[in-house]
Specification:
By secondary structure, the protein is of the alpha/beta class. It folds into two domains: 244 residues, Aspartate Aminotransferase, domain 2; 102 residues, Aspartate Aminotransferase, domain 1, CATH 3.90.1150.10. Helices cover 35% and strands 14% of the residues. It has nine helices and 13 strands. Strands 2-10-9-8-5-3-4 form a seven-stranded mixed sheet. Strands 1-12 form a two-stranded parallel ribbon. Helix 2 packs across helix 6 and helix 6 crosses helix 7. The protein is globular. The two termini are 34 Å apart.
Length: 365
Amino acid sequence: MTRIWNFSAGPAALPESVLQTTQAELLDWHGVGASIMEVSHRGKYFQEVIAAAEADLRELLAIPANYKVLFLQGGATLQFSAIPLNLLCGRSADYVVTGAWSKKAFQEAGRIAPVRLAVSTESADQPADGFIRLPRFDALSLDPAAAYLHLCTNETIHGVEIHDDASLPQNVPIVADMSSHLLSRPVDIRRYGLIYAGAQKNVGPSGLTLVIVRQDLLGKTAVVPRLLDYQAQVDNDSMLNTPTTFSIYVAGLVFQWLKKTGGLARMAEINREKAALLYAAIDDSNGFYKNPVEANCRSRMNTPFNLPTPTLEAEFVRASETAGFMGLKGHKSVGGIRASLYNAMPVEGVEALVGFMRAFATGRG
């Protein structure tokens, strides 16, 4: 069987060896005579799985002991509500809006409390696709009494990424949506009060959401619905209700694959190489392909680009599917093309895409 090159933004490609292990263990996990999907989440077999997954995740990210790891549900979008419910405690919070997802997080938090827009990089004259840069974090006007500062460190739709978090403010807990680049490179967890991520990019299949939260931020409020209460989830080992057992199992296999690959430092090298290949193909196309994002914050995970006309873009998508590529159509809110270069996409896949792009441009330039 020939597998396609999957550039989907999420649910996204999984490492082929992880899929093969999942297939081999589907009917009989480690000789127990049942699938891991069929055993009790409170029994010893799944307890082994979730304990190993947390240990491997802690090792990969060097998560300090004073941070709790939660395996939750509801996607990153549910955390847009859970975060203010858990952390505001009668105060406000500052939100940095650099793309569609941080904008949604700000809007959802505003349904719960009067949070503050610290800055938005949205272009006033092109609101649909105007997110092309990062703000100057050292020039932000922040509320000194804010409970936290929220930002999205990689905007999946607009392709804007924070590469250097050393410039981020350190006088307030930073809450970061890392859904589309967590595990793509090392992260200094200590710079953040809370990190959250939907799994369906670099972590595993959809259904699982990771939350990594500093212990001193927990237990500040008594009015949170229990399933959204971080302290309650910590007290119950992420099992206030039945967790997404299969997604956690597959995520654990991904963590093992990352360790065998060389860890996050090695993965960062590979991801830089892939992104450089694709951006070079765009920039060297004499204007046939264009990426609007400022060079210092171009995402290594999600690369949106445009062709001269929407008609050519539609033709590009059709031709790419015929040529064995999937998931290159841009998000419906901005159109164009988008290639997502998550961990499971090998360099060879990007080389194949670049070859296709050059051939397509030559035939229509």
